[in-house]
Design a protein that fits this description.
The protein has 367 residues and is α+β, with helices and mostly antiparallel strands. It is built from 10 helices and 12 strands. The protein has 2 domains: 7-115, 2-Layer Sandwich (Beta-Lactamase); 195-367, Heat Shock Protein 90. The structure holds adenosine-5'-triphosphate and magnesium ion.
């Protein structure tokens, strides 16, 4: 089937939403790349088919078509489920617009609901994250300043003390002040100017892998599952290493904490894939790198599962609860995002990092 379309429709190629053009008989004359992604069908498979074959048993869609045709105006049907000929069910909103651009006479535009929900959730997360970061920065500054004075005064006091045995108390003050100081230093991520340069994601992962293997107990498997055809991204190598390492170290620590024998061997998988037509922080990218860090450990404790990216949230003894907050900050600086899915025996952190040739040259880091 011919995929050539009138030149006025050429822009459809670049839309993230799925677009189908139908002729008078309601046969598909064109499917854009967005439709191929959303419906998991190639344009070749859909083209020439009647719309009732592409979406069998979808009364709502057919009445939307009738409505648009009868009223000669666009008609939108909100939030309904369609099943494709591949038996994939999708929640979508569909807009049907009559046009006079032979051979096309109807434009069908589909927006996937779960994608919209994800974008909305991501926007909320970003706002929350920025508010948290600012609050913490201010708080850390306020705590850090008097700490120096407190420590200095304790040292002076120590010199003046009449009995050496009393130094035990000043030492407690000094040590605790130092502990707080290092926590504040971690909270106030040093503002090193990011160094953005072409970075190979697999070099980042190989570095993480060798660090993990060096510091992990014997018997830990770190498996690679790479798509080596992925292009470089423009990024700060050190920050990317730190982000992935923080995530992977948590996996190692969680797996170490569960008692031995009855479990399968501890395994971490580092996986890379290409993800197409991705919307991140309201911006659409043709391609993003999807990086997954998967472990078969005990899973994230359910009581903190929704809050793990918040600062100071920790589920382990001695944890400061900053590893994931920092990882998220670094990934956000690359205009990417992190998600997590966890149940006992399977925890998967997914990082999306956009690749975009023109915008990358002037990548402005997010704070
Ligand atoms: N792969 C994982 N499996 C099980 N639990 C996890 C995993 N990743 C994170 N967690 C839980 O999330 C919590 C928060 O992790 P985060 O890295 O932010 O802080 P932390 O490890 O406690 O301290 P820090 O990294 O600052 O030393 C961890 O304490 C742990 O309970
Ligand atoms: Mg950690």
């Amino acid at each position: 089937m011919n995929q050539t379309i009138p030149s006025s429709f050429a822009g459809l190629e670049h839309l993230a939403t799925a677009v189908l053009l139908l002729d008078q008989e309601r046969n598909v004359v064109y499917a854009n790349p967005g439709a191929e992604v959303v419906f998991a069908l190639s344009a070749k498979q859909i083209s020439g088919l009647n719309i009732s074959q592409v979406f069998p048993d979808c009364e709502i869609l057919h009445s939307a078509l009738e409505n648009a045709i009868t009223n000669h105006s666009p008609f939108r049907e909100h939030e309904f489920v369609i099943t494709t000929l591949r038996q994939n069910s999708l929640a979508v909103t569909c807009t049907v617009t009559p046009v006079e651009l032979p051979p096309a006479c109807l434009v069908l535009e589909f927006q996937q609901m779960d994608q919209q929900l994800r974008i909305a959730r991501e926007e909320r997360m970003l706002i929350q994250q920025q508010a948290n970061a600012e609050l913490l920065r201010n708080l850390a500054h306020e705590i850090r300043n008097p700490l120096g004075g407190l420590r200095g005064a304790a040292q002076l006091l120590e010199h003046e003390l009449p009995q050496v045995s009393l130094r035990e108390y000043t030492q407690v003050i000094i040590k605790e002040a130092d502990r707080l100081q290092s926590l504040m230093d971690r909270l106030l991520v040093p503002h090193r100017v990011p160094k953005y340069e072409p970075t190979n994601i697999h070099e980042v992962l190989e570095r993480v892998r060798s660090l993990l293997l060096a510091e992990s107990p014997q018997g830990m498997i770190v498996r690679r599952d790479y798509d080596t055809s992925l292009p470089d991204l423009i990024g700060d190598r050190e920050k990317l290493i730190q982000a992935v390492l923080n995530i992977a170290r948590n996996a190692v620590q969680a797996m170490q904490s569960q008692s031995g024998d009855m479990h399968a061997p501890s395994e971490i998988i580092l996986r890379t894939r290409a993800e197409r037509q991705v919307t991140l922080a309201k911006k659409r990218y043709r391609v993003a790198i999807k990086l997954q860090i998967i472990d078969n450990g005990p899973g994230i404790p359910p009581d903190i599962r929704d809050r793990i990216f918040y600062p100071l949230v920790s589920g382990r003894d001695g944890g400061s609860g900053l590893g994931l907050t920092l990882a998220q900050t670094f990934i956000t600086q690359h205009h990417g995002m992190i998600e997590c899915d966890s149940r006992p025996g399977h925890t998967c952190f997914t990082i999306l990092l956009p690749i975009e040739s023109t915008a990358m040259k002037c990548l402005i880091p997010r704070q």
